[in-house]
Amino acid sequence: MARITLEDLERLGEEPDGDGSDNEDDAEGEARLFAHWEAVASTHRVSLPRDMAGPIAQMARHRHAREPVPYVSLSQHGKCEEAAYEERRYPAGKWACVTMGEPMYEQSISLSFMKLMRYICKENSVGCHLGMTVPVLNEIHLTKEETELEHEVLTAYYLPGAFQQNPPVPMDPEIHITERAPLRVITRVFYGMTTEETILREINIFWELLGPREGVLRGTYIVASYENPSVPQRRNEIWFICQPE
């Protein structure tokens, strides 16, 4: 089962002779990048489809140009980074969304993001690279007992500002352009891998930190992904969703 996420992309650029530069033959550079990625992916027990070679090369070339999803910080709490949390408001905006329901969380987000990579790189109605935004969001749901994740995960990529008014149409029918309403969230940073186990642990820690609080959803959360796996303690966030006012 193939697994690839936004967090894996920058590591591709670490191959010094396979960066897709102009002085290389395009096919040779792309093959070099793909071979490098296969080696990296094997450490994750990943089988990488051959048709991902083009998107991988494009994402590697554009890896330093990432547009942040806009938001307003409403308040910050905590005396140190580990215990801190922040309340934010995100404006309405257009997102490209994919929903998967694989047995494992990692499988769902990996398959979804491969689809989004293809859309971002070229498989869209304008036929060009759209640009990367961060974070990529993964909306999850807990079971009734709140002890496991439901299999269905929605992965969402924010359309860059240049395409917010007129989003390119995806060629993949499983990608849907959605106008998401304004969102108020309470966020907390955590570092390391994102698996079902780590996500459940971070949710429990966050509830202990917040204590009883009205107006916050239980059972539905968002995992925001920012960084690549070459960072040993890479940055993620858990978002608690506030009920609409």
Automatic annotation (TrEMBL):
Single GO MF descriptor: heme binding
SUPFAM superfamilies recorded: Probable bacterial effector-binding domain (SSF55136)
Residue ranges, compositional bias (Basic and acidic residues): 1-14
Domain of life: Eukaryota
Bias-annotated ranges (Acidic residues): 15-28
Positions of region (Disordered): 1-29
Protein's name in the database: Heme-binding protein 1
